Amino acid sequence: MYKAPVEEIAFTLRHVAGLSAALANGRLGDLSEDLVDAILSEAGRFAGEEVAPLSPIGDTQGARLVEGKVISPDGWVDLYKAWCAGGWNGLTGPEEFGGQGLPHMLNVATLEMWNSASIGFTLGPTLTIGAIEALMAHGSRSLQERYVEKLVSGEWTGTMNLTEPQAGSDVGALKTRAERRADGTYRIFGQKIYITWGDHDAADNIIHLVLARLPDAPAGTRGISLFLVPKFLVNEDGSLGPRNDLFCHSLEHKLGIHGSPTCTMIYGDGRFGEEPGAIGWLVGEENKGLACMFTMMNNARLAVGMQGVATAEAATQKAIAYARERTQGRAPAWGGAASSAQAASGMSPIIEHPDVARMLVTMKALTQGARAICYACAHAIDLSHRADGEEARHFQERAALLTPIAKAFATDVGVDVASLGIQVHGGMGFIEETGAARLLRDARIAPIYEGTNGIQAIDLVVRKLPLSTGAQVRGFIAELRQVAEAVAASNRDGFGETASRLSASLDDLEAATDWLLTRQAEGALAEALSGATPYLRLFGLALTGAYLAKGALADAAHGAEQRIALCRFAAENLIAETAALKDRVIHGAASLAAARVLLA
Amino acid sequence: MYKAPVEEIAFTLRHVAGLSAALANGRLGDLSEDLVDAILSEAGRFAGEEVAPLSPIGDTQGARLVEGKVISPDGWVDLYKAWCAGGWNGLTGPEEFGGQGLPHMLNVATLEMWNSASIGFTLGPTLTIGAIEALMAHGSRSLQERYVEKLVSGEWTGTMNLTEPQAGSDVGALKTRAERRADGTYRIFGQKIYITWGDHDAADNIIHLVLARLPDAPAGTRGISLFLVPKFLVNEDGSLGPRNDLFCHSLEHKLGIHGSPTCTMIYGDGRFGEEPGAIGWLVGEENKGLACMFTMMNNARLAVGMQGVATAEAATQKAIAYARERTQGRAPAWGGAASSAQAASGMSPIIEHPDVARMLVTMKALTQGARAICYACAHAIDLSHRADGEEARHFQERAALLTPIAKAFATDVGVDVASLGIQVHGGMGFIEETGAARLLRDARIAPIYEGTNGIQAIDLVVRKLPLSTGAQVRGFIAELRQVAEAVAASNRDGFGETASRLSASLDDLEAATDWLLTRQAEGALAEALSGATPYLRLFGLALTGAYLAKGALADAAHGAEQRIALCRFAAENLIAETAALKDRVIHGAASLAAARVLLA
Fold it and tell me: What pLDDT score does B173 carry?
């Protein structure tokens, strides 16, 4: 069973992502180290003891559509209410509407725990947080006053309605219509697919944020507006009025996250209300909906990255526990010494076998790396809001740069580590009751939604590398080089070749970055995009090496030996791949272009 | 829907794996090119038109245990009978018992097609083929005469009973007991798990080959004997007698291959028969059961490798078809020219996007590479039986060397390519109805069973590299170098950097091989085993590069341009990874040993 790695999470927040420095600099108000510890420790308890036990039923029973109503898995409604009662839904919510206004780093850290316990369950609150952010950033004061408090308390939940059958990655292709009404409201007509928690029975109302197109709107992404469309209309006094003209038409039958209802939503077909049309209110300005949606999407992308970290953590815990118990064969003596742990049968716990140990340490290293990247991204988001002027701008860019890496690298890690977790279990890994397979099934969506990982890679190359004409990414690489130099200066044997390996990976990163910026400047977009995915992977691996080293250097206490050993393993076993990735970025496009003859 | 790539399969058999040369040399009796074509083409038709359509019901309905009987998915029993009536079950079976005695290459090629259509369905016949091989190699004449004909016709099926809860990879730990009886038979008592097609309703009888231990047997693998234990006892005249004392206790609830019943089998608990004990007949000699089982296992390992190839092929076909139809966004102009294929909407088919094209070409290259490796292994098996003296010994070693690579590399490719296939589908990939997710679920078992891929890597390093004191592997690498030289000599621009890239990968392979042989000779087993998995991957990638080049050089006809383009893509995008893999083999062990502190 999952046990939240509270210490590791706290350490990474403090010493790798920058929480301690931000606290010391007064950037995070009156937040104290003690409060951080209390929050993490209580969240860890709740995630492990309350949420995780209800994950299997979510998977086997799933969300069901019964007579037009979406029914949650047994126990989930009570779980959701207890979770809200614990104040978790409002952790980062605005204080004026009952939230605790805590930094995003704490949101991300607790999101990791909830998602390790159950991605399907956590998706609901994740979408609600996004809706709150969008309303606070772009909604009118009256919309905020009517909706935000109950979203913060969790009495109501939120959704994000972008996708339509013909409009996925290309959101500009959407066709859902919005018509203006004389009273300032709008009527929404159309079909949305893949709407997470689009309907359910855990909250009294559901506040849909829906992208739609006005009749006179320009084509493409410049003609999209965002609307708030509640399931139940809300009276002046905040009480619930009649049902709005929208409903969940069907649920998807998915590979994983079965407990999370993935809905096809129909707006405005006349099933409810006096005349057809779901009543909506404009959020932000007409035709500026995409900008509003990006507010939700950026944080949602990081939240999805956390699903990757969370799966990797849960899978690693499960695999290590199994590998300690399961005995098979006799492990070879390591380094000449007889193996210490050998069962009476003469068989060794499989954790003693080098190949199994390689899988487990790889899982640990990738998990920690992905975690550090995501937390660093959250830290940058926090400081982009809480610092001023140039510093705020810097962190805004840093967050923008890190977001696609956090989303795509961490979700790829989630899938890879979950798959390794199955492998460690052998035949048991393929049996559903073990739970290892569920982790892979649940994790497999994360590289797809909130912008496929291919889209993230394109975003990184096309929009993020050019920030400040490349100064942001170059400055970042320079920071990372300081870590490599500090490892070299530390003169600790345990680091092995870490300094030189990390330095070589950063050379690869810099060379690939320069090439991509140059090719784009020269207008060779297809060439640059051909290397986008390998480049993102290269960036993620180099960051993994650097952040593990940063943590190892920061730990002067009992954990140092372990951190140094993990960092060395990553440096000497994992990040050497950056050379091949750089090669793919710089030399791979020509052969890919030639190979298009195979796809004609 | 799956369409068997008959031409590609035939080409790979002939020009990459060596079928044409073997035919020309008269090594394959009176087999003709025409017969090969006829078999492949009819198998392709049957796989695509008859088997593939019944794959989804196998997945959704699954095999069910109802009142003690295992019921096949709707339509599967008729499908199985039609498949047997087509003669497919006896393709390589011994001619004296009604088989066609064809080379193993044809078995493997058709196995690919059946598995692309449905792994769950194909598992039944795959096990039967293994049982036939074991009985022909080790069974007494009377056992052969009583059982083989009906196994060849498919009226009866076969199983392989190795695993017990405490004995998986470590088969020597098994506890199932066998007791001698005065009449020369044995009584079997025990529990076996993960028994594929252990019970079902598609055939009249099921012939279990069961590993068990005699009371006076030595401990470990030297005390294991193999027994034939039929579900129904067989009378002198071949008719079926009473039920033997064995039954299927339960079916596993698995991630995939739902149509294939994975049974827990109970032997000898007294449910059937006059006294407890399942009646069995010794196959081979007492305490020599493991050698008999290896006969089944080696071919079964290659057959599992084919599941990887088959999944990769099916996933690639499905992804390409989707990527041609699905439009999203506007693809960049490739090489300065405007994209040719753009839908009227202004959106491009996603196949035009570089990142999607990269995924698809990667899928194609890995699929072809894995296919060539497996077919080459089958060719070596054929010649080990059909050549003489030194040549037979050489091919026996070649088959032994290639088997773990075929099994592990191909099944890893199956999982990776199936996962890429999901990614190409975007959100649709996560929806079960699309079928892309099923391919991943079905494929995920293949790296586990028949010896986990970790076990394959150990086998490769510990048992296969030392064959002929390393001369076998060194000779193989020398052969592969000739391919690189032939590419260089061909002077065709289309190959790009193929020659130098391939040559560099072979340098990596040679260096890693030398290091592993040396370290083992020095007794540093744990160090060598630490690099086993990266080494196997390195070998598989280098072979992929070499075999794609061999195919490209051999194709003087219309396919040459495509083969050269694919080969170049593999050389310039995929096999550069061998440098990092070599590094992991040679330098990775020290940091892995140090990182064991994390697992304590």
Answer: 93
Q: Cα–Cα distance between A358 and B593 in angstroms, integer?
A: 9
* Interchain contact, B573 vs A591, CB within 8 Å: yes
Q: For A137-148, what is the mean pLDDT? A: 97
Contact A429 B419 (CB under 8 A): no
Instruction: Give residue B506's domain range.
Output: 453-600
Interchain CB distance below 8 Å, B562 and A590:
no
Quickly state the pLDDT bin for B415 (edges 50, 70, 90): very high
The pairing of strands A240-243 and A246-251 is unpaired
Question: How far, in Å, CA of A308 to CA of B124, rounded?
Answer: 37
Pairing of strands B186-196, B262-267: antiparallel
pLDDT at A293: 83
Is the per-residue pLDDT at B344 higher than 60?
no
| Domain assignment present for B461 | yes
CB B565 within 8 A of CB A594: yes
Cα–Cα distance measured from residue B292 to residue B308, given in angstroms and rounded to the nearest whole number: 25
Region B485-503: what's the mean pLDDT?
95
ipTM: 0.97
| B413 inside 8 A of chain A by CB | no
Query: Is residue B342 less than 8 Å (CB to CB) from chain A?
Result: no
Do strands A262-267 and A186-196 pair parallel, antiparallel, or not at all (unpaired)? antiparallel
| B146 exposure class (CB count in 10 Å sphere: 0-12, 13-18, 19+) | buried
Q: Is B395 exposed, middle or buried (0-12, 13-18, 19+ CB in 10 A)?
A: buried
Is residue A80 predicted with pLDDT exceeding 60?
A: yes
Cα distances (Å, whole numbers) of residue A300 to A18, A130, A371, A473: 21, 7, 16, 22
User: Could you tell me if residue B513 is inside a domain?
Assistant: yes
Chain centroid to Cα A93, Å, comes to 18
**Of A358, A440, A378, A447, which is closest to residue A410 (Cα–Cα)?**
A447
What does B95-109 look like in DSSP terms, one character per residue?
GGGT-----HHHHHH
Residue B98 CA to residue A21 CA, distance in Å, equals: 79
Amino acid at the residue A497: E
**How many independent structural domains does chain A possess?**
1
> Binning pLDDT at 50, 70 and 90, where does residue B292 land?
confident
Nearest to A255 among B355, B432, B561 (CB): B432
pLDDT at A513 over 80: yes
Q: Which residue has the tokens 């960049």?
A: B332
Q: Identify whether A100 is part of a domain.
A: no
For the stretch A46-58, pLDDT in tens is 999 999 999 999 9
At residue A229, the 3 state secondary structure works out as strand
Q: Give residues 358 to 377 of A whose Cβ lies within 8 Å of B.
A: 358-361, 364
| Catalytic residue selected from B112, B164, B397, B450 | B450
Would you call A333 an interface residue with chain B, using a CB distance cutoff of 8 Å?
yes
Rounded mean pLDDT of A77-101? 97
Nearest to B400 by CA among B540, B506, B299, B305: B299
B337 alpha-carbon distance from chain centroid: 43
Asked whether residue A138 is assigned to any structural domain, the reply reads no
Distance between the two ends of chain B, CA-based, in angstroms? Answer: 49
Cα B206 from Cα B128, distance rounded (Å): 9
Kindly identify which residue of chain B lies nearest to residue A338, measuring between CA atoms.
B526
Percent of chain A exceeding pLDDT 70 equals 98
Write the residue in A168, A433, A494 that is nearest to B253 by C-beta. A433
Q: Per the CB < 8 Å rule, is B448 touching A426?
A: yes
Catalytic choice (A352, A450, A510, A527): A450
Q: What is the pLDDT of residues B119-153, one digit of tens each?
A: 999 999 999 999 999 999 999 999 999 999 999 99
b/e for A473-507, b at 16 or more Cβ within 10 A?
A: bbebbeebbebbeebeebeeebbbbbbebbbbbbb
B164 in active site: no
